[in-house]
Amino acid sequence: MKLSHSQRPFRPIAAAMLSAMLVIAGCAGNNNGNAAANNTAGNQPASAAPEVQKLSVVTSFYPLYYLTSEIGGEHVEVTNLISSGVEPHDWTPKSQDLNKASKAELFLYHGAGLETWVEDFTKGLSGDSAVMVKAMSEGIDLIEGEEDEDEDSHDHSHEDEHHHAIDPHTWVSPKSVLVLAQNVKNSLIAADADNAAVYEQNYTALHGKLTTLDKDYAEKLGAVKQKNIVVSHEAFGYLARDYGLNQVSIMGLNPDAEPRAQDILKIAKFVKENDVKYIFFEELVSDQLAVMLANEAKVETMVLNPLEGLTKEQEKAGITYLNLMQSNLQNLVQALQ
Ligand code: ZN
After folding, report:
1. How far, in Å, CA of 119 to CA of 109, rounded?
2. Using CA atoms, how far apart are residues 14 and 64, in angstroms rounded to an integer?
3. What is the dihedral of CA 148, 225, 179, 82, to 10 degrees?
4. What is the rounded average pLDDT of the residues 211-226?
5. From the CA of 41, how far away is ligand 1's center (Å)?
6. 151 Cα–ligand 1 center, Å
7. Which neighbouring-strand residues pair with 79?
8. Beta-carbon neighbour count of residue 185 at 10 Å?
9. CA distances to 17, 96, 198 from 148, in Å
10. Which terminus, N or C, of the chain has the lesser number of Cβ atoms within 10 Å?
11. DSSP 72-120
């Protein structure tokens, strides 16, 4: 059990002042009204933590939500824009999302081309918004997206809409996530220096877990015989680069792109020639192509999660980034041994 200062019993006078502050904050729309109502109800047992003014943070997608929740702990109120079950490549913000970000103190997005909407979004923030906006992928050695091999042989008008010059999928590699975590920590401290010590402490704990994950990945993937991973959408470039694997994707960087029959046949040939045993698919995108390819090549399919978001079921079950990264490693080891 950790006991932070917000869980210590408040003296009555402090609690009364706090309630008044919460009522004011509630009017500003930052806090939910129930917190204030609960606190004015009188002396709560010590187990009911009194609410304190939290740093309001809006994150663009799940991995940043996870890191912010872990590092911010009970000092932050985190809102994630892209809800569970939604594939982030398909998502665009609505006016309610702009409202949320305008009212927040900190808005964290990934950058590196993931949120194609972010430039217009930040321009659209309300004039009186004091939100601090930060890109979390800064400092990561980014991978240039691969151009299609036969660029001029077919019409690219569809892909061009979503064309990524840079591979945005940094968070699938523990090594890159260590950088994201550090950026999140620094941003929380920049927005709320009073709680710097707590953020540092939570960050150190998370850093330990992510470092263990990185070591597990390096050790176990270093030992597998098969180095080729055949995946549906090209989300594992950082994982492949950082742990010595070779990614072959059915679709491009964006899961909307539609592969041609000749591409499927080409990959099926690669699968047979290289003794690949499994085709990986992911939960937020249809497994149709992976199944088609697996049937064509007479191999099995298995989940490899690009961690772009949780499914509703995973969210309900309390599954986290860390759990999914561990499952990914297990599946990789099973498929590649
Ligand atoms: Zn993706």
Report:
1. 11
2. 34
3. 60
4. 98
5. 47
6. 21
7. 58
8. 23
9. 62, 37, 47
10. N
11. HGGGEEEEESS-TT--GGG----HHHHHHHHHSSEEEE--TTS-TTHHH
**End-to-end Cα, the chain, rounded Å:** 40
CA distance 92 to 292: 30
Instruction: Tell me, in angstroms, the distance from the centre of ligand 1 to residue 147's CA.
Output: 16
Mean pLDDT of the chain: 83
Cα(235) to ligand 1 centroid in Å equals: 5
Of 60, 59, 57, 51, which is closest to residue 19 (Cα–Cα)? 51
Which DSSP symbol is given to 145?
P
Is the pLDDT assigned to residue 249 strictly greater than 50? yes
Q: What's the gap in Å between 135 CA and the centre of ligand 1?
A: 17
Quote the tokens at residue 245. 């694997």
**Amino acid identity, residue 125?**
L
Please answer whether residues 226 and 207 qualify as being in contact, where contact means their C-beta atoms are separated by less than 8 angstroms.
Answer: no
Q: How far is the CA of 170 from the centre of ligand 1 (A)?
A: 10
Contact 184, 68 (CB under 8 A): yes
For the record, the structure tokens of 147 come out as 């151009």
Task: List domains and CATH numbers for the chain.
Answer: 13-40 (no CATH), 224-336 (3.40.50.1980)
**Bigger pLDDT: 61 vs 2:** 61
CA of 116 to the centre of ligand 1 (A): 12
pLDDT tens-digit readout, 297-324: 999 999 999 999 999 999 999 999 999 9
d(CA 199, CA 33): 26
Q: Rounded to 5 degrees, what angle do the CA atoms 281, 283, 287 make?
A: 45
Q: How far is the CA of 146 from the centre of ligand 1 (A)?
A: 14
Tokens read off for 98: 């702009």
- Whole-number Å distance, alpha carbon 236 to ligand 1 midpoint, is 9
